[in-house]
Amino acid sequence: MTEQKKSGFATLIGRPNVGKSTLMNQIIGQKIAITSNKPQTTRNRIQTVYTSDAGQIVFLDTPGIHKAKNKLGEYMVQVAERTLKEVDVVLWLVEPTSYIGAGERHIALQLSQVKTPVILVINKVDTVKKEEVLGFIDTYRKLLDFAEIIPVSALKGTNKDRLIDLIFHYLPYGPMFYDEDTVTDQPMRQIAAELIREKALKLLDEEIPHGIAVSIDIMKQRPGRNLWDIEATIVCERDSHKGMIIGKGGAMLKKIGSAARYEMERQLEARVNLKLWVKVKKDWRDSDFLIKNFGYDKKEV
How many CB atoms lie within 10 A of CB 270? Predict the structure, then answer.
């Protein structure tokens, strides 16, 4: 008789910039979710798949739960909150601290309204003294009735295997959802767009990145060759931003392009010929049509 395997859905939630995408990439072992030290990096649910001898975990990495300021923000929060009810286990990532702010309390309130088991993951423990961690656990324990509490370092991979075991503990037995070599259900076009956005986030000034989106205009492989032609447009909200994205003599755009191309070539295992353009579309984050146009579809919420 074959041993039964577990298979189910887990989601990572937490305030923006707490390390959700870094943890996802650490568990999966390759880069799927874009990472950046700026908030609002993840805008869509990213579905990634972890398969082992124990079974399969399908991770939904949601946008951070926060108080929305515009239509894009509302969309992101709706996606995150709906996901909580659809999964078998919720991983709530938090900072290692004994101060719990309004943002965390807002998330705790959302979590108190769902029946899904919640594993509290205290991330970034590599940045604090070991003896302080017990105090942080004690502070958070008073906030909600957690199924489990585990300290980790997403960056260093500390306690990663223990966390994976805990997730499997809360998953049901059943057949796998994906083939065992599947790592993500994101189409390559979307990954390519996110990689360009990630490089722009890393290289540009603080105030610009929130107001950018990337659309892939052309993505095709040249017949009989291990070479892809990709053309993409970076959309920003102001003319002044356009100038900064292009940079003096096109230097900044070149920098963004070569950093993104390097990552794309690793993902596609092929050479990439990448062309980037920059366009201004004022207030696209408050336009339903444009939000949908850049891949954020309200009907999917």
Answer: 14
DSSP labels, 217-259: EEEEEPTTSSEEEEEEEEEES-HHHHHHHH-GGGHHHHHHHHH
Residue found by looking up tokens 């909200």 in the block: 237
Q: Is 8 helix (H, G, I), strand (E, B) or coil?
A: strand
Helix axes 102-112, 71-86, angle to 10 degrees: 40
Q: Which two tokens stand for residue 290?
A: 């444009």
Closest CA to 212 of 230, 231, 193: 193
Cβ–Cβ under 8 Å, residues 260 and 196: yes
Express each pLDDT in 261-274 by its tens digit.
988 888 778 899 99
The two three-digit tokens of residue 65, written as one number = 């739960």
Q: Are 260 and 212 in contact (CB under 8 A)?
A: no
Q: pTM of this prediction?
A: 0.58
